[in-house]
Each structure stands twice: as structure tokens, then as C-alpha cells.
Amino acid sequence: MKHSYVSHLFCPKCDTRYTIEDKHQLCTCGSPLLVAYDMESLAGALNPAMLRDREPSLWRYRELLPVLHPEHVVTLGEGLTPLLPMPNIGADMQIPGLLMKDEGLLPTGSFKARGAAVGISKAKELGVTELAMPTNGNAGAAWALYAARAKMKSTVIMPIDAPLITRNECAISGSNLYLVNGLISDAGRIVADLVQSYGLYDASTLKEPYRIEGKKTMGLEIAEQLGWKLPDVILYPTGGGVGLIGIYKALKELQTLGWVQGKLPRLVAVQAEGCAPIVKAWDNQEKESQFWTASKTVAFGINVPKALGDFLVLEAVYATGGCAVSISDEELLQEQQRVAELEGAFVCPEGAATFAAARKLKQTGWIGENECVIALNTGAGIKYPDTVNVQVPVLQPGEWITR
Amino acid sequence: MKHSYVSHLFCPKCDTRYTIEDKHQLCTCGSPLLVAYDMESLAGALNPAMLRDREPSLWRYRELLPVLHPEHVVTLGEGLTPLLPMPNIGADMQIPGLLMKDEGLLPTGSFKARGAAVGISKAKELGVTELAMPTNGNAGAAWALYAARAKMKSTVIMPIDAPLITRNECAISGSNLYLVNGLISDAGRIVADLVQSYGLYDASTLKEPYRIEGKKTMGLEIAEQLGWKLPDVILYPTGGGVGLIGIYKALKELQTLGWVQGKLPRLVAVQAEGCAPIVKAWDNQEKESQFWTASKTVAFGINVPKALGDFLVLEAVYATGGCAVSISDEELLQEQQRVAELEGAFVCPEGAATFAAARKLKQTGWIGENECVIALNTGAGIKYPDTVNVQVPVLQPGEWITR
């Protein structure tokens, strides 16, 4: 049996095809490229039961991943994160079927590890020795660390306001780290120049086609963890939107294989009120978003003023009958605390936004009674210490507590 | 088939037995209690093949855990963390068979989640509604969050120097958090008073018998992940030592079941030079340790001047032909950086100490050629931002990088 059934790359805008054996970034038309598989052969060769006793990592889906040879796999054990019932907060927002996919339990503490694991593995297979990328923090940390494991050099540029801990992760990996006194879009321009001037591999979001494949494993896992049944709704905190694009791609691939039946879940793009270009586009039923000026939110990972894959995000939302919702910083911080108090889960602010969105959509009736709803927590709350307000009494040794 | 084959509690010092249905803390003789199982019935009822397609969490070993009824299980999806080959740093220290068990990939970012998951589940089964505990940070964070999930009240007391992020975790869970201007031993005295005055459940290390059972799943997982073969050496960063006691207990249980054969791995207690009571006791071949005055180390989790279970730790080390080693803060911080640069793994300082210990023991010849050696990383490096020195150039938007 083949390790991977990957066949080629294609452009979702102009349909141009590219080979899988060579290094490609964007399509000549400027669009991101997507990865295609030989689904017909795969459908005959693999079935769900064969996955059952495979290793508990995203590499259990190797036939649907783009790495041709197992020796190129670069792994830190990522994947098969818990899909947890959330009965207490579910009751609080009257969604008894609320589940959380907890991506905090990944190397580097965020879902970015999925894209980095597959992206770096494929880059290694393609002979890449040095890469550059802009980041809002977590992606850069993940790519820098996986690059180190692959013995690859990296240059990472992040906004000065990105979570402090992600600086440490990049620095300790030996990455060339720079801060920029601006946004991820400013970092992106510097990377574009660096890539052009020095011929580096551009690992910017969607400028290499493989991180989507890593992210799509969230969709594969959700389906497998639900016994190949699909939920009604999946809420995803949307910055660059790669995870949502990936989940949609995964679910369609599972449909093609015949492993899932019926309607796809409604995909919900959750954004912050301070940076909501996808929500604005969805409100106007447009196919692409506009650059969001002066964007600002505590949910730093979704502070992306204009995503390269916005049209793919919107397509996934429209095609599944989903929607796009924005949440204020105040709402999401309140929800972060509720999730911790009621469920013992310390989610990241971006993840908290999906819970706030679920609450809102239940109130408006968009989420119905007894629907199965998945909130995607994209990272560990421990990466964002500043979102928690702590006032603690200090005792001296020998002092007692009375109450 | 029964959910658990737990039978009773017993005292490893005076052999007194206690029932499993009632709340017990220490033995009347002052020793911690251990959990016993009906191994004869279990050996007839369960075999390794039956585990293969169970859920990827520590609850796959439910028969060897103390929770009688599945409805009392409190879980955030903990367990089955990766056992990763470390070929690059392994080559660097001439231990080609070096592996890392990465406990950073657990809820709350540390191995304390294992003890908390099982401890809180059993406390729930016993009807506990409120607990108190001292902590060096990570255990308190884990117990506070799992207590929240179980709808249990908690009071946590930690040294003022404990990792800052663990304050946030306790605070956001709704725990009653106090800092003490001293060490964990000072916090312990305050908790002891609180427990006595108000009748709270004492969740201090080894004062409840069940966290060992959670921690022992590290040993069960290592054996299963190696295909029921045992490694030659396991290095464990030792503060309270519960993990080492647990791993030893697990391996002996697997021997009793006949699931593993041959010699047990040599267990190595790794401590910091600034707090090495177990190392000192081992050097003098003593059965118990002495209180280590003025203890100090950056590896805060192993700053435990006198562990209640020291005699059990030393017994495990002696019985397996292991040893005890101390590492300077400088050595462990250097090793932390090497592990990140060579393997892309950002380990915690305590975990880094085990790598430094492996290097040292290979140099002295204590670790032989081609031995299979496991370094246990007890938590995610992201919980300890201060251990990384970051100097980063700052760019302005529109500025370019030249090189």
C-alpha cells in the first residue's frame, strides 16, 4: 500500500495544474494552490476500520497527506486531540450537544503545529533548506520549532504585540527572529522582499500549499471521533482561515470516499469585532473581503486584516449554509472565564470567541435545539497570560487562613 | 467486564489495610497509602490486544485505575502523550536510543494533569466537595482546573516565586488562590491547618492515595508504546517523586500481569544541585532523605526540600539498580536550548534536567552503548518564559532585512 495517494496541485481559481514533485508557491494567477489526491484508488484501498489501531497522531491519515516517503515525516507527535463534551457550559448556553475540539494539546500549544508538521515535512521532501514567514506568533513558533527538528533554517517576523511566549519559542529554536512595529501585513511585506531577494522558501499562510493539508486533519479527526457521523455546526476562529478551508476540504474528501453521509456541518467563521473582514463580506454576500483598517483585538491570532484565502473561507461558509459572526473582546474574555470555571478548560481568547459565538447563535435561534455543535479551541490559554486578571492575597510563612 | 479491578488501600510501611469505598488520607502510622488491585482476576480478564482500539487517553487503562464507576470519570482528554525518538540530541550525547516522553501535551501543559484527572475523579466518587493543597504551581493549576470540571471547590496555596502562568490557571478556574512568601513546605503547613480547621479534603502530594495511580499511567504508556518491551533507563525529574513512584508501581503491576518480561528499567531520580535531598540520600545509601535547607533552582517544579514519599522514591531507585543525579541550573538551561535547537522541542527546565543527566551518565559510562533511554519531559516550556533569553531586532513597517 502506498504511503500517500497525493496526485497533483491545482488552482481553485483558474484550474491550472502543477506537479507534486516540484516546489510551488502561488499559482501564476496569484491564487493559493490546493492539493489533490487519487481518490478513486484510495477509495478502493483504504477503509475506516483500517485506521482503528494506527498511531494516535495526524499521520494516521497519511494516505490523505502530501508526503510521499515516510522518511520525510517530521513529527513531534501532533494530532488526535480530544473532542470533549462540554455539558456544563453547554447547559449554560442551552446547547446540550456542545463539544470542544481542544487544539491546546499539541506541540507548541496551538493548532499551528498541524500545518507546520505537514508543511515542514513536505518542504523537507522538496529539498527546502531555508524558509521565511510572517506570523501573529503561534504559527511562527510552530514552524520555527518544526524547522529545527528538520534541520532547516528559518526567519520569522512577528508584530511587536504578538504573544510574548511565541518570541521565546522562536528564539530557543535558533530561528532568525525579527519583530515589526506594526501588523502581520507589515511583516508579510518584509518577508516577501526577503524571499525575492534571497530565494528563500515562502512559508507565509497559503503561499505554500501544504499547511492546509495539516489543518484539514482537524476535520478528519472530528469525523473519526464522532464515528464517521458529522456534527451540525463547527465554529472556527478565523484569521487567515486556513483551518476552516482545511476542515471543509477534509469533509468533502470524506464524502468523495463515501466515509460520511448526508449534509456537511454548517461552518461558522468567528471573528473579533475589531477585525471582522470576513463577517463584513458575508453580511454583504460578497465573494472576497476588503482590507480591515486599524484592526485591533486581544484575540491576537485572528487579527488578520485581509486573508489571502478569504474567497475560500467564504466559499466554505456559503456552500455549507454557515455564517460569519463577530464577537467583542469583552464578550470573548467573559466567555474564556466561564469555560474555565464551568469546564476546567483554560482556552485561548480565539477559542473563547467560538464559545461566545455559539451562545449568540443559540440566542438568535440560528443554532437549533439539540444540535451537535463543535467549538474549536485553537490553542492553550497558557500562551496568553495577559488575558487573565489575577488578584491574589499573599501570606507569610506561619500565617493561617481563617474563613 | 468490570470498569476497575481496584480492591483496597494498604500502607507500604506497616501493611495496614483500608477500604476503597471510604475517604482515607495518610495511614495512621503517617505513611502515604498505596492502591491495590485484584491482579489475579484482572490477569484472566484483560490482555494487551484488548487495549489496541481503546480511546487515546489514560483511561484506556481503566481496569488498573481506582475509579469504580465510569460516571465519576472527570476528563479533559489527558494521556497517551508522544514517545518521540530524539536522534539529533541523541547523537550529540552519543545515546542513539534516546527517546522523550513528552508530557507537555496534556491539559494544563504538564504531567500534573494525570494525577489531577485520576485524583479528582476518585475524590468525586468519594463525595468530596471541597479540597485544599499546596503546590509549586503546576499541580495546583491542574487540580484547580479539574476540580472546576468536577464542580468541586478548591483552595490552592503556592510560593510567590512559582511560575506566573500557574496563578492565572488557578485564578481563572475559580479556585481560592493564595501566595505564600516562602517555599512549598510553608504552603504545606498552612494547608495542613486549613484542612484540620475546616475538614477539607487534603490533596497534598501523597496525602491522598490516588494521584500516584494517575502518574503511573506514564509507565503503562511507555510499556505499551514500546510494544510491551521495557527500556533500559528512565530519567525522571524528581521533586515530590510521585511520577517515579508511579512508574515503578506500574512496571511491577505489568510484571505481575505477565505483560512485560525481564529486568525493570533502571530508574534515575534527577534533581537540581540547589535542591538535591534524594541525591544526597542515595549517595549515602540511606532509606530516607533529610530536609534540604535554603533550596533554590530555576527548575521550580523540583524545588521540594523534603518529599513525603522519599522512601518510596529511594526504594524504586535501589530496587531497579538506578541512581540519583543532580544538575546545575546552568547545565539544565544549556540543555533546554540544545533540545530546542536540535529537536524542535521546547521542554520545561525540569525536563531539560533529565537530558543533562543522560548526557552526564553517558559520559561516566553509567549509561552503556546502545541502551534505550527515556528522558521524561514533565511539561511544556511555554509555561516558563523566564528561562529563555530573547534579544530580538525590531523593524519598522517598510524596513527591509539585508544580509
From TrEMBL, chains A, B:
Its cofactor is pyridoxal 5'-phosphate. One of its GO terms (molecular function) is threonine synthase activity. InterPro entries: Ser/Thr_Dehydratase, Ser/Thr_deHydtase_PyrdxlP-BS, TrpB-like_PALP, TrpB-like_PALP_sf. Keywords: Lyase, Pyridoxal phosphate. Residues 74-379 form the Tryptophan synthase beta chain-like PALP domain. CDD domains: Thr-synth_1. It is an enzyme of class 4 (lyase). Its EC number is 4.2.3.1. This is Threonine synthase.
